[in-house]
Amino acid sequence: MRTDIDPGELGHGRFYKVLTSVVVPRPIAWVSTRSAAGVDNLAPHSFFTVSCVDPPMVQFTSVGKKDSLRNATETGEFVVCLASESMFERINATGTNFPAEISEFAEVGLTAEPSATVEPPRVKESPVALECRLEQALELGDSTVVIGRVLHAAIDADVFETDARGHSLPAIERLRPLARLGRNEWSTIGKVLDITRIPYEEWPGHYSRED
Predict the structure, then answer these.
(1) CA dist 45 to 30, 84, 88, 115, 145, Å?
(2) Model pLDDT for residues 151-161, shown as the tens digit of each residue
(3) b/e string for 11-25 if b means 16 or more Cβ within 10 A?
(4) Which one of 61, 65, 97, 125 is at 20 to 30 Å from 140 when CA atoms are compared?
């Protein structure tokens, strides 16, 4: 038996809680921006993903008109930093609704590191920073999808690991990213499963409803 829910009948506020409880886990974009007045802002956004490979683009969604959205659209720049497990409480603290003239970097005790290609600073304590130029801001209802072209990636050298095939890439166990769940719940990486995609030519043909 299933529970049927009509978003229109439930209302957007209550259905938002349902939606964020089932679209899980969600990676977190720790977004750094700088206002036109020169104030640095930092906030977590859990509607975040890759939007294009070539050219490389990432996106985050601002629910409502938040400082990250205003700064990114006014200046055309932002930085996405990795939300790592060691920064859990500070990441949550940057979600506080500070006035626009107050910098979360200073309030939360984080180091604003100069970026290589954009004006907004990187979070020095974060192992990964993706410096972005605004590509498009797409308004959808009460939210705005902010898409940025990645101009530069700054990644700590000690998170790289060389695999059996000789590929040197950031290792999930060293990045230790956080994700958002429903309610006030967050998650760590937990158990990591490793499996390769099956080419059609090697399809085993043994999967069925009875398996």
Answers:
(1) 6, 14, 14, 20, 11
(2) 999 999 999 99
(3) eeeeeeeeebeeeeb
(4) 97
Question: How far apart, in whole angstroms, are the C-alpha atoms of residue 205 and residue 208?
Answer: 8
SS3 175: helix
| Whole-model pTM over 0.90 | yes
Span 76-121, pLDDT tens digits? 999 999 999 999 999 999 999 999 999 999 999 999 999 999 999 9
Tokens of 24: 């899980």
Taking alpha carbons only, the member of 160, 153, 149, 167 closest to residue 53 is 149
The residues near 78 (Cβ < 8 Å, ≥ 6 apart) are: 31, 32, 33, 68, 71, 72, 118, 120, 132, 134, 146, 148
Backbone angles phi, psi at 167, to 5 degrees: -85, 125
